[in-house]
Structure formats: C-alpha cells, structure tokens
Design goal:
single chain; 224 residues; alpha+beta; 6-stranded antiparallel β-sheet; globular
C-alpha cells in the first residue's frame, strides 16, 4: 500500500522510489470526510495485511459500528468512516465467508451512501464492488475489467460499460464478472457502448479544468 497527502504527483514520486506489485489494484484520490486530510486518513484503508478498501460517500452509522468492532478487538488507525467497513468485511470473512459474500453481508449493515471496491489477499486477482447512493460503473474489457465512479477515467481502456443499479454488488477478475441485485439475486445488466473520446475529458491547452469548462460552456449548451 502506498499513500500520500497532497497532489497525485506526490504519490507518483513515492511509487517510483518504492515500487509495489500485485495481482490487481484499487486506488482513490478523495479528501477526508471524517478526520483531517492526512496520510493516516487516506485510502485505501486496511484490516491487517489481508484486506483493503476504497470508498466514495459517507457512512451515517459508522460510530455505532466502530464501537461494536472495537468491542470485538478491532484496532483502528484512522478517524474515517471508511475504516469501519473494511474491519466489518474482515470480521465476516473470519467467520468463513468468501469476499463476495462478506461484502454482500456487510453492506446490509451500512446506512448512508457508498460506492466501494475491496480486495483480499486470500483471493488474488479479485475485486468486489458495491454501490448505494453513490455511482459505480463497471468497465468491460478483453482479459481485464475495471471499476470506477464514472466512465471518464476508463475511456482510454474501454468503451463498454455496465452501469450498476442501486444496491448492486459485483465481483470481477480478468476473465469476467458476476452481479447480484439489492435482493441478492443474480442479475445481468446491459453492456452499453459509449462513443465519448478519451481526449474529450483531458485538460488540453488549459491550465486547469475549471477554465476548460468555462470555455466549453457554449458548446455544452448547444449539445444539450
């Protein structure tokens, strides 16, 4: 795991000085919802050295769950609501569930909004994602699959997407994926082709995205 407070370039420099390898990866560039925007509060959050999780959104019952997990012996290293989720999934896996089932059980306990991606050392090459109130999209590739909060980070990798519905949980690896819905029933969501070009979401000649968006307003209005 590599984490750094500040710009993405700071994390990039850290990677080049201390490279890491793995079967698959999760990452995040969010600031802290709970606690200071510090390295300790940065994603991914882990439970021991076996489980890691990233999260968009906010968990409203995190204090209640934190107290419950602390009584079970869980040690917390951050001030975030996110860390509660990774320990909850770890506890369920310790009871004998695989990663997919543990995430499905865990999200039933959560109140609030979330889109998460979880990896486990016990299941190399597998990523499990879930969404409620926050968007999550599956990028379908050839010999590779992706999760992201929007299509735009993935446009350079694929133009085929599955938009997860509210309550969906997905397990993916390089060979494929499986989805269950809010009622834990296996479901197939349509794969949609997106024609947006990857370069349309790059900053281009502009020094920052806000300026780019200002100059794109006439065209955006016309297209709308």
């Amino acid at each position: 795991r590599l984490r750094a407070a500040g710009k993405v370039k700071d994390l990039e420099a850290l990677f080049y000085s201390s490279p890491i390898n793995g079967h698959c990866g999760i990452s995040h560039t969010r600031w802290a919802t709970h606690g200071a925007p510090s390295t300790e509060n940065a994603h991914p959050h882990t439970s021991g050295d076996q489980l890691a999780l990233v999260h968009n959104g906010i968990i409203e019952n995190h204090e209640e769950l934190r107290r419950e997990l602390q009584q079970c012996g869980c040690q917390f290293s951050s001030e975030t609501d996110t860390e509660v989720m990774v320990h909850l999934v770890a506890r369920l896996m310790a009871s004998g569930l695989d990663l997919f089932c543990a995430v499905r059980k865990a999200v039933e306990r959560l109140r609030g909004a979330f889109a998460i991606a979880v990896v486990s050392a016990a299941e190399p090459g597998v990523i499990v994602g879930a969404r409620k109130g926050s968007p999550l999209v599956l990028g379908v590739g050839h010999g590779e699959h992706f999760l992201a909060s929007d299509i735009y980070p993935l446009l350079g990798e694929t133009d085929s997407f599955v938009f997860l519905a509210e309550g969906d949980v997905v397990s993916l690896n390089v060979d494929g994926y499986q989805l269950v819905d809010l009622n834990n029933q296996r479901v197939d969501r349509p794969v949609k082709q997106v024609e947006t070009r990857a370069d349309s979401v790059q900053r281009g000649i502009y020094p920052h995205y806000m300026l780019k968006e200002i100059f794109e307003q006439p065209q955006a209005v016309a297209e709308t």
